Amino acid sequence: MTAYWISSYSEILDADKMAAYAKLALPALTAAGGTFLARGVAEAWWEQGIEERVVLIEFDSVEAAVAAHDSPAYAEALAALDGGAVRDIRIVPGA
């Protein structure tokens, strides 16, 4: 069953660290089987009205998404981010 990696960025604290992270995270997660479906700041929002950056990545399974997160290549990306953003990451199974 497909799974979705959803990242919500409530605050970017260091744009340079964020850029270094993105440069490493994109190839790490695509090499692990992820397909980026959406990236960017919401164009419309309701309820809480929080304007934040969101990333949506599709994987073949929850296990594949978790393995991508736990991979050495993604660990390198996380080291580059080094507190440069306040965010939440969730892995959600497809419906």
UniProtKB/TrEMBL annotation:
<dbReference type="Pfam" id="PF07045">
    <property type="entry name" value="DUF1330"/>
</dbReference>
<dbReference type="InterPro" id="IPR011008">
    <property type="entry name" value="Dimeric_a/b-barrel"/>
</dbReference>
<dbReference type="InterPro" id="IPR010753">
    <property type="entry name" value="DUF1330"/>
</dbReference>
<protein>
    <submittedName>
        <fullName>DUF1330 domain-containing protein</fullName>
    </submittedName>
</protein>
<feature type="domain" description="DUF1330">
    <location>
        <begin position="2"/>
        <end position="94"/>
    </location>
</feature>
